[in-house]
Write a structure and sequence with these properties.
Elements (H helix, E strand, L loop, with lengths): L2 E11 L2 E12 L3 E5 L6 H6 L11 E9 L2 E2 L7 H7 E4 L10 H11 L5 H14 L3 H4 L12 H13 L5 E5 L7 H14 L4 E5 L3 H7 L2 E6 L2 E7 H6 L4 H7 L5
Parallel strand pairs: 3-8, 3-9, 6-7, 7-8
Antiparallel strand pairs: 1-2, 1-4, 4-5, 9-10
């Protein structure tokens, strides 16, 4: 069964120890929320799974990060291939300055797929997955930049899903959206776990409670507690977790 996990993971930005001995594992077809105050290491940890931290100067990573048992930091790992297996959705919608159709088709074309009928099928199927098809099907040649913020974010999710990733990373995907758009994206996340494994960083405790199966609480670079979401929010084992989810700090 697919598993994304870290073993004794440590990460330094120069002299700053950002992640400390992180032991973590998630199962296929689950949503795991990463919570904790700003600067605690949530987004840094998320980016370990697609090696985006590699792009930052003076980063040193020790330990193991495995996708389906494969060590993704071992020498010779093709990072471009890895990033095809790991979809990423960012805090702010970031559609390409292309048509709606070409935004979704982009990953397929980059992967060398040129079959027109296949691309059209994947674009339609994926836009239906993110509940956007009915809203855009008559305007697929229209610029993605003309869509609303919520529509843009669902389009970005579709773009990530089009290449059928094993793991989907979401870094505060609703923080820039209005409440109605947020509700649509949350409903989408809940539905997508039938086909995908999802890690989501969120500052919204209610959102974590609504969309996730598991919750990991980070504090000062440490994974303080990792358990079923219901347990974390109703009967946490650690005082720091209790204090954070009840709003005493953060």
């Amino acid at each position: 069964m697919f598993k994304a996990q870290s073993i004794d993971l440590n990460l330094h930005y120069g002299e700053y120890h950002a992640l400390k001995d992180i032991q973590f594992a998630t199962e296929k077809n689950t949503v795991t929320a990463l919570i904790g105050p700003s600067g605690c290491g949530k987004s840094t940890f998320l980016r370990c799974f697609n090696r985006m931290n590699d792009l930052i100067d003076n980063v040193k990573i020790e330990g193991q990060v495995l996708l389906d048992g494969e060590e993704i930091y071992q020498k010779g790992t093709p990072v471009d291939e890895l990033r095809k297996r790991v979809g990423m959705v960012f805090q702010k919608p970031n559609p390409f300055p292309k048509s709606i159709f070409e935004n979704v088709a982009y990953g397929l074309r980059v992967n060398g797929i040129n079959d027109k009928s296949l691309i059209e099928h994947v674009v339609e199927t994926t836009l239906k997955q993110v509940v956007l098809w009915d809203e855009v099907k008559d305007n697929l040649k229209k610029s993605a930049m003309a869509l609303s913020g919520g529509q843009q974010q669902r389009l970005c999710i579709a773009r990530a899903l089009a290449v059928e990733p094993a793991l989907v990373l979401m870094d505060e995907p609703t923080s820039a959206l209005d409440p109605l758009s947020t509700a649509k994206v949350e409903e989408l996340i809940y539905q997508l776990k039938e086909q995908y494994t999802i890690l989501i960083v969120t500052h919204n405790m209610q959102q974590a409670g609504r969309v996730s199966d598991k919750t990991a609480f980070f504090y000062l670079g440490e994974l303080v507690e990792f358990d079923d979401t219901k347990t974390i929010f109703t009967n946490p084992k650690h005082t720091r977790t209790q204090n954070y989810i009840t709003g005493r700090f953060g």
